[in-house]
């Protein structure tokens, strides 16, 4: 059916060009346009001259990085442990990772208010064990936002990583063992390098998703932990500065696409 | 596996279990909290009651949000299924210039930060005067759901032997007839899974909806706005209902794909 595939994609193509590509191009245009004067870079100059924007940008980068590291530290052992389970236990573990993935982000974020609040499970436990006398404040600060984001994004790291680990042939590891390699050497010299591309790809994906995160910082940060998305919300809905919002969006979009290109290269390596 | 000492095995198991607990505990805790009789979010709840469910079902604004969410999800998931399904078929079976570009573009809403899609649509819809319209909302949800549909159906179509279609054409069947009578019946389980995923995706969408929905309230939008203002225990009831709804939907998908022997390829 050479050429005729076009007929099948045409309806969707029209929708995407009109309702997705055109709005994004329009937004990019706004960032470089000033009424009556045409092309300008002043909206970008405005960004550099406003310390608030740079601070939010730095904040976002830092939170995204910490949440990504937390994801790697929690996700890698989890995926590795799942690989070693029996088939029944493994199915249950997969279900427990997949289910949160599909539950609304709002529900998962809200759940942390219940768990981390002053009368919540974690604080009750800490006080019961006598580790602290007064409740620890997890909410409405960076700690809570980071925990919430790490939680929401964990399945994005664990599922592809697990898929890669499960494809590693056990005989490869047995061969290393039969040649006298101790378990630690097998892990670091054989197993870990084989999982590294998938780990790196997963970490990049999580990082990209962190950069654009909106719901979790808004809810768990209580307005005190602004990230790029929340700044954009303010610039659109509260103090209408559409050009400034467009300029920031353009930067965020370019950064995201660059990291995504790196992700694609790693991902191809991981699945090869 | 990698032998290792019993100690190191136990360490891995402990970390793995911690990971699973970290993922699932928040969801599990919300459920008993929704039956709490208290206004404060104390765990464990002092005593049980159904008052938050009564508040939810007795509130016409919540019920209206429920209706809007269902309607938007129903229309946009079917639209995404039709458009995305046809496109996935064209991409898998066809060879034409710009195929990779088209596929990348269809998947883009998954990668482009949702906040950017929200802002771009807000600006564009404001420009043409459709901000806050029902049509704008449905179109936005449709394009956000297309990647989910294409992922599920793309795999299913690739696995389906094209020679079966070729036999149908060689016997004189038209394109439309082949798709309706040969391709669709074989792909039915995956089509169902794709529809469920698209429905959940739309029903849970909050960011774009908050920006462009105007006076329309959906369940996630209302939930989000209430969460920003104050912690209201009615939300625990809504959250529990959403968890139950997701579990049931995924169970249906698992059952139907499992029966067709297609579970593994779709989920992992």
Strand content of chain A: under 5%
- Which CATH architecture of chain B? Orthogonal Bundle
Counting helices, strands and paired strands, the structural category of chain B is mainly alpha
Mean pLDDT of chain B: 88
Number of helices of chain A: 12
The CATH topology of chain B = MetI-like fold
Rounded to an integer in angstroms, the radius of gyration calculated over CA atoms of chain A is 23 Å
Largest sheet of chain A: 2 strands, antiparallel
Number of strands of chain A: 2
What would you note in describing this structure?
Chain A is mainly α. Chain A has a single domain, classed as MetI-like (MetI-like fold, Orthogonal Bundle). In chain A, 79% of the residues lie in helices and 1% in strands. Chain A has twelve helices and two strands, in the order αββααααααααααα. Chain A has helices at 5-31, 42-49, 51-83, 87-102, 105-116, 121-128, 142-167, 170-178, 183-211, 215-220, 228-238, 242-271; strands at 33-34, 38-39. In chain A, strands 1-2 form a two-stranded antiparallel sheet. In chain A, a hairpin with a 3-residue loop joins strand 1 (33-34) and strand 2. Chain A starts with a helix and ends with a helix. The mean pLDDT of chain A is 88. Chain B is mainly alpha-helical and 268 residues long. Chain B has a single domain, classed as MetI-like fold. Chain B has helices at 6-34, 51-58, 60-93, 99-111, 114-127, 134-159, 162-170, 175-204, 207-212, 219-229, 234-259, 263-267. In chain B, helix 2 crosses helix 11 and helix 3 (60-93) packs antiparallel against helix 8 (175-204). The longest helix of chain B has 34 residues, at 60-93. The mean pLDDT of chain B is 88. The chains are: A mainly alpha (272), B mainly alpha (268). The interface between A and B is large, with 98 and 90 residues.
């Amino acid at each position: 059916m050479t050429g005729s595939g076009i007929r099948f994609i045409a309806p969707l193509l029209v929708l995407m060009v009109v309702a997705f590509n055109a709005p994004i191009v329009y937004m990019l245009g706004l960032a470089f346009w000033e009424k009556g004067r045409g092309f300008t870079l002043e909206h970008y100059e405005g960004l550099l001259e406003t310390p608030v924007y740079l601070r939010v940008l730095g904040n976002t980068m830092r939170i995204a990085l910490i949440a990504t590291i937390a994801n790697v530290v929690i996700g890698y052992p989890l995926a590795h442990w799942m690989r070693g389970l029996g088939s029944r236990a493994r199915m249950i573990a997969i279900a427990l990772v997949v289910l949160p993935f599909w539950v609304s982000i709002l529900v998962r974020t809200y759940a942390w208010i219940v768990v981390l609040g002053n009368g919540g499970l974690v604080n009750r436990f800490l006080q019961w064990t006598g580790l602290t006398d007064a409740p620890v404040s997890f909410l409405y600060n960076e700690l809570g936002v980071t925990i919430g984001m790490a939680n929401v994004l964990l399945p994005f790291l664990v599922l592809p990583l697990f898929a890669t680990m499960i494809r590693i042939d056990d005989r490869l590891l047995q061969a290393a063992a039969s040649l006298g390699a101790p378990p630690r050497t097998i892990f670091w010299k054989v197993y870990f390098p084989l999982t590294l591309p998938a780990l790196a790809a997963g970490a990049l994906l999580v990082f990209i998703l962190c950069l654009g995160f909106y719901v979790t910082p808004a809810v768990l940060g209580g307005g005190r932990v602004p990230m790029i998305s929340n700044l954009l919300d303010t610039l659109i809905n509260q103090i209408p500065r559409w050009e400034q919002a467009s300029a920031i969006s353009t930067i965020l979009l370019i950064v995201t696409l660059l990291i995504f290109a790196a992700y694609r290269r790693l991902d191809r390596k991981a699945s090869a | 596996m990698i032998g290792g000492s019993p100690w190191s095995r136990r360490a891995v198991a402990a970390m793995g279990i911690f990971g699973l607990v970290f993922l699932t505990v928040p969801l599990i805790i919300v459920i008993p909290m929704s039956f709490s009789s208290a206004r404060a979010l104390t765990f464990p709840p002092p005593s049980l009651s159904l008052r938050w469910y009564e508040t939810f079902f007795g509130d016409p604004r919540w019920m209206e949000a429920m209706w809007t969410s269902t309607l938007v999800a129903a229309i946009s998931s079917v639209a995404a299924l039709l458009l995305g399904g046809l496109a996935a078929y064209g991409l898998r079976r066809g060879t034409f210039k710009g195929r990779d570009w088209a596929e990348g573009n269809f998947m883009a809403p998954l990668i482009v930060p949702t906040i950017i899609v929200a802002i771009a649509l807000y600006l564009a819809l404001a420009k043409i005067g459709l901000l806050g319209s029902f049509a704008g909302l449905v179109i936005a949800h449709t394009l956000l759901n297309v990647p989910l549909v294409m992922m599920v159906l793309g795999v299913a179509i690739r696995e389906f032997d094209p020679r079966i279609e070729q036999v149908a054409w060689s016997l004189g069947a038209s394109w439309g007839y082949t798709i309706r009578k040969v391709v669709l019946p074989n792909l039915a389980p995956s089509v169902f899974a794709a529809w469920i995923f698209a429905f959940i995706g739309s029903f849970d969408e909050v960011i774009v909806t908050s920006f462009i929905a105007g006076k329309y309230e959906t369940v996630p939008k209302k939930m989000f706005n209430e969460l920003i203002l104050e912690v209201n225990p009615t939300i625990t009831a809504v959250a529990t209902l959403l968890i139950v709804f997701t579990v049931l939907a995924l169970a249906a998908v698992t059952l139907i794909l499992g029966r067709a022997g297609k579970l593994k390829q779709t989920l992992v």
